[in-house]
Amino acid sequence: MTGIETRGTVRIDIERCKGCELCIPACPPNVLRMSSTRNEIGVLFPELLPGCTGCSACALVCPDFCFDVYRYETPLHHEATA
Amino acid sequence: MSEPRVLSTDAAPDEAARVIEPARPKLLRGEDHDLCPGCGEPLAVRVLLEAIEALACEQRSIAVMGIGCYTALSTLIDVDSVQALHGRAPSLATGVKRMRPDSLVFTLQGDGDMASEGLQEVIHTAARGESVTCVMLNNGVFGETGGHMTATTVLGQRTKNTLEGRDASYHGHPIGMAEMLAPLGGSAYVARAAVYDARSVTAARRMLQRAFESQLAGEGFSFVEILTMCPTGWFIPTAEGPGYLDEVLGSVHGVGELKVRGELHEHPTEPEN
Questions:
Q1: CA distance B204 to B241
Q2: Which of A65, B198, B200, B202 could share a disulfide with A57, CB 3.0–4.6 Å?
C-alpha cells in the first residue's frame, strides 16, 4: 500500500468559518491549511490535506463550530500530491 | 513542485466512518453566532454543554446568565436559563437552587461581570457554601462593553484603556478569582482552566464535569474559571490569541485544581482522566 494513510476526515462548513486560523496550528498531523479562495463573507477557510487521524483537535478549538470529525472504519491511502 | 492534494470536505464521507466529534454539541442549537473571529468563549461553552450531556443532566440544568459577549449564546444553548443583571448571577442562582434543589444550577459569567461589576455576589455565595457552580470566562477585558480593563486584567496586558499595558502604579493589581475563592470555607471545588489548544479544552471539560459532580454530591460551592481568548480586545491577530492567552494570562492566572472536595491543593494541577 502506497501513499499517505488517512484514518479520519472532517466535514468543514466553510460558510460558517470566520477565518480565525485557530485550527491550523491545532492540527497535530498538520494537514489543515488555509484556502486561496474566499467564502461568501470574504475570508479564507481551512482545507484538508491527506493524513487526517480523526483526532478532533480542530473541532475543539473552532469557535464557529465548523468541523464534524469522522474516523474511517478502514483507513484510506492518498497520494500526497494532486 | 506539484500542489498538495486537497481532499473534499463539503459532505460526510462516503466510506464507512463514525462521528468522533460532531461540529456542535447536542445542547447547542443550529444557528450561527456573531462573536468575533478567534473568540475563546464558544470553546468554553462547547465543553460546558458536553459536561452537562456527559452527566445526563440535560433536563434538569438551569443556567443563570451574566452579561457579556457570551450572553449572545444564551439563545443557542438548549438548557433552561434565566438572565441576571450585571454581576448578580450567583445570587439569582442561589434562589433558583434553593427553590429547585434537584436541579444542576450554574452561572455563566465573564470577568467583567463577576470580578468588576458584582464581586461581592460570588464571594458571599462561595462563603455561604451554596450548592451552585459559578463559571467565569476570563479574558481580562470588557469585550462587550467597550474593551476596557477588568479587575482580572494582568499587568502589562493591553486593553482599550491600558494601551501601554496595565501598570500597577496607576491601574492597580489584578485579582486572582480562583485563589480568592478557594480558601473560603463554603467552597468545595475550585479550578482554573484555559482553552488555548485541544488538550487544554479537554482539561476544561473535565474540570467542569468535576465541578458539576461536586454540586450534585452536595459538597458545597463550586467554581471554574476558564481563560479565553479575546484577540479583538487584546489588539492582536486571531492566530496569536492562543499563544498570548497561555503566556501572558496563563503566567499570572495559573491553571489547575485549587480545591477538591473541600481540600486545598498546595500545587494546583490539572485533573487526570
A1: 17
A2: B198
Calculate how close chain B gets to A67, using CA atoms only, in Å: 5
Least CB-CB distance to A63: which of B7, B35, B198?
Answer: B35
> What digits encode the pLDDT tens for the residues B25-70?
999 998 889 999 999 999 999 999 999 999 999 999 999 999 999 9
Please give the average per-residue pLDDT across B15-20, as a whole number. 93
The answer to whether A73 contacts B15, with C-beta atoms less than 8 Å apart, is yes
Identify from B10, B14, B19, B21 which residue to disrupt to test chain A contact, counting A C-beta atoms within 10 A and taking the largest count. B21
CA B66, CA A33: separation in Å to the nearest integer? 37
Q: Which residue of A has its CA nearest to B231?
A: A20
As for the ipTM of the complex, it is 0.93
Q: Which domains does chain A have, with CATH numbers?
A: 4-74 (3.30.70.20)
Quote the pTM value.
0.96
Q: What is the set of domains in chain B, with CATH numbers?
A: 55-264 (3.40.50.970)
The reported pLDDT for the residue numbered B105 is: 98
Contacts of A41 (CB under 8 A, 6+ apart): A15, A18
Return the C-alpha cell found at B82.
Answer: 434565566
Per CB-CB distance under 8 Å, the chain A contacts of B9 are 9-12, 47-48
Residue at grid coordinates 467564502: A39
Those residues of chain A that have pLDDT short of 50 are: none
Q: Between β-strands A67-78 and B61-65, what pairing exists: parallel, antiparallel or unpaired? A: unpaired
**What is the model's pLDDT at position B273?**
64
